[in-house]
TrEMBL record:
Cross-referenced InterPro entries: Creatinase/aminopeptidase-like, Pept_M24, Pept_M24_MAP, Pept_M24A_MAP1
Residues that, per the record, bind substrate: H93, H191
Record's keyword annotation contains Protease: yes
Cofactor needs: Co(2+); Zn(2+); Mn(2+); Fe(2+)
This protein's GO CC annotations: cytosol
Binding, a divalent metal cation 2: D121, H184, E217, E248
Quaternary structure and partners: Monomer.
Protein name: Methionine aminopeptidase
Gene that specifies this protein: map
Single GO MF descriptor: metal ion binding
Species assigned in the record: Rhizobium hainanense
Physiological role: Removes the N-terminal methionine from nascent proteins. The N-terminal methionine is often cleaved when the second residue in the primary sequence is small and uncharged (Met-Ala-, Cys, Gly, Pro, Ser, Thr, or Val). Requires deformylation of the N(alpha)-formylated initiator methionine before it can be hydrolyzed.
Length: 278
């Protein structure tokens, strides 16, 4: 049985109950999420061949510090970086290092800032120089998968509607959906209930209610969906070494649908790519 709880009276840990937030929380999330979105906008000019992901990570840290925010990943369960940078066949949780990006790479940069106690969580894909058409198509399919999942969010629907919208589109485009990782509740906690699966059936999962806040962050592969985690305990890669991509937004359920808190203020939700038509 799914339990819902008013966030203002909830304990400061994930108990499995789904928090329902009020307008003050939505206002706090807008600020935190927009700071994250602004950072991701700035990175569009930094990501290029020859730039090490450590340089990107340093920028994320300094940008946060300059704006009174702290990177949520830094020292989280032993993770020692301010962002995740996942290149090519890395599905998620890639650790920044001193290896330079190369022409033709694709990289996901995942940033979460804590600002005034609220967590703003988002990620985007960045093409590094000129990329192959197959990689560009994967980015297009992944972004469209995210937006179709978001379009399914409304009070009375179930979380499975999000997963069904993503899975049916991505698989229809001959791509696969990673099942090992999922979206999650977010707000005053970094990771909270419910889990948001990126596959499923329309009537599966908890009912969506006004005031819920969570991420939607599908990971889409050109090959098979299977992944493995490397020996560092963090880096997840495709088992068949096929390209993987991910886009992530934080959303809040409203009376009529949802609000996307992490939209790019500069229109760079798909940096380096032309706007989708239609």
């Amino acid at each position: 049985m799914v339990n819902y709880i008013e966030a203002a009276t909830a304990p400061a840990k994930n108990t499995g109950a789904i928090r329902i937030y009020g307008q003050d929380a939505f206002a706090g999330m807008r600020k935190a999420c927009q700071l994250t979105a602004r950072c991701l906008d700035e990175l569009a000019a930094i990501v290029k061949p020859g730039v090490a992901t450590d340089v990107i990570d340093r920028f994320v840290f300094e940008f946060g510090m300059d704006h009174g925010a702290y990177p949520a990943t830094l020292n989280y369960r032993g993770y020692m970086k301010s962002s995740c940078t996942s290149i090519n066949h890395v599905v998620c949780h890639g650790i920044p290092n001193d290896k330079p990006l190369r022409e033709g790479d694709i990289v996901n940069i995942d940033v979460t800032y804590v600002l005034d106690g609220w967590h703003g969580d988002s990620s985007r894909m960045y093409p590094v120089g000129e990329i192959k058409r197959s990689a560009e198509r994967l980015l297009e399919v992944t972004y469209e998968s995210l937006m179709r999942g978001i379009a399914a969010v409304r009070p009375g629907a179930r979380t499975g509607a999000i997963g069904e919208a993503i899975q049916s589109y991505a698989e229809g485009e001959r791509c696969s959906v990673v099942r090992d990782f999922c979206g999650h509740g977010v707000g005053s906690l970094f990771h909270d209930s419910p889990n948001i699966l990126h596959y499923g059936r329309v009537n599966d999962g908890p009912e969506l209610r006004e005031g819920m806040i969570f991420t939607i962050e599908p990971m889409i592969n050109l090959g098979k969906p299977h992944v493995k985690v490397l020996g560092d305990g963090w880096t997840a890669v495709t088992r068949d070494r096929s390209l993987s991509a991910q886009y992530e937004h934080t959303v809040g359920v409203t009376a009529t649908g949802c609000e996307i808190f992490t939209l790019s203020p500069g229109g760079l939700d798909r940096p380096g790519l032309l706007p989708l038509q239609g």
